[in-house]
């Protein structure tokens, strides 16, 4: 009954070394198989640290797993004298199909601006990586009642100058910062309110047709116990999961919305 194929995405953040990563993906794949997971109905992706990607690629390719994977960030540059950075080209060659862009921890800890995120989206698209653009407000903004305008401004900043054709596969993850890793979950109504506002805004910016194809995820303390209610929102097309994606059984339950 979903209009768009739901996406359940696991953001591992800076957790799991390369050996733990392989074990976690293996266990996740078994658990999903045991549960008879239908990947055509619900897409499952993981976003491990960069150093895990080679191991995950080997496992996924070798065992023909249907789990998708991507990185938590990328450089806006392609190659060159950018010590410590990782380019979209490298990610593409490692079989990544998606990439997180503008996670609130990148915005906060690394001061990533809308302009930089715009360049990162362009870099992702240049290497056929689906950008999963994270937006969302902090507690102060929420308390001031400015969460919708704040989040839509982030969206506009990151999408500046990009066309509907370029963004055809865009995924937007609405993650209220006050609900990330705090155990505070925005209510299903809050998730739907923002997902619908994002879609309406994209319809205005581009077209109804474009907006109808964009997947909008909710993220912020999603667990197997609250995912079903959140996904009932007509405009909520999946979840970006942090803490609860580090445990295979729990993440598999989220992916099957049990
Ligand atoms: C996240 O980091 O994207 C996130 C949603 O984290 P958590 O699920 O732990 O709140």
TrEMBL record:
Kindly state which keywords UniProt assigns to this record, in alphabetical order.
Cytoplasm, Gluconeogenesis, Glycolysis, Isomerase
The source's superkingdom equals Bacteria
Q: Which InterPro entries match?
A: Aldolase_TIM, TIM_sf, TrioseP_Isoase_bac/euk, Triosephosphate_isomerase, Triosephosphate_isomerase_AS
Q: What is its EC number?
A: 5.3.1.1
Which residues does the annotation say bind substrate? 11-13, 181, 221, 242-243
Q: Which GO terms describe its molecular function?
A: triose-phosphate isomerase activity
Task: Give the UniProt subcellular location, in the record's own words.
Answer: Cytoplasm
Active-site residues?
A: 103 (electrophile), 175 (proton acceptor)
Q: In which pathway does it act?
A: Carbohydrate degradation; glycolysis; D-glyceraldehyde 3-phosphate from glycerone phosphate: step 1/1; Carbohydrate biosynthesis; gluconeogenesis
- CDD domains tied to this protein: TIM
Matching entries from NCBIfam families are given as: tim (TIGR00419)
The entry assigns this protein to a family as follows: Belongs to the triosephosphate isomerase family.
* Subunit organization: Homodimer.
Name recorded for this polypeptide: Triosephosphate isomerase
**Species name:** Nesterenkonia aerolata
Question: Coding gene?
Answer: tpiA
């Amino acid at each position: 009954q979903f209009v768009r194929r739901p996406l359940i995405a696991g953001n591992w953040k800076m957790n799991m070394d390369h050996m733990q990563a392989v074990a976690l993906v293996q266990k996740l794949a078994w658990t999903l198989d045991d549960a008879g997971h239908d990947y055509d109905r619900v897409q499952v992706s993981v976003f491990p640290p960069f150093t895990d990607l080679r191991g995950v690629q080997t496992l996924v390719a070798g065992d023909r797993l249907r789990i998708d994977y991507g990185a938590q960030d990328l450089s806006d540059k392609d190659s060159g004298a950018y010590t410590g950075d990782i380019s979209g080209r490298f990610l593409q060659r490692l079989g990544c199909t998606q990439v997180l862009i503008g996670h609130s921890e990148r915005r906060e800890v690394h001061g990533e601006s809308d302009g930089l995120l715009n360049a990162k989206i362009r870099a992702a698209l240049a290497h056929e990586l689906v950008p999963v653009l994270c937006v969302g407000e902090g507690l102060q903004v929420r308390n001031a009642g400015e969460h919708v305008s704040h989040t839509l401004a982030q969206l506009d900043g990151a999408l500046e100058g990009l066309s509907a054709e370029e963004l055809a596969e865009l995924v937007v993850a609405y993650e209220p910062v006050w609900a990330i890793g705090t155990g505070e979950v925005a209510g299903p109504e809050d998730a739907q309110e923002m997902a619908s506002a994002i879609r309406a805004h994209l319809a205005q910016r581009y077209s109804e047709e474009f907006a109808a194809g964009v997947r909008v995820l909710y993220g912020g303390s999603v667990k197997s116990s609250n995912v079903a209610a959140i996904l009932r929102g007509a405009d909520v097309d999946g979840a970006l999961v942090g803490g609860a994606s580090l445990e295979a059984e729990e993440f598999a339950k989220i992916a099957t919305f049990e």
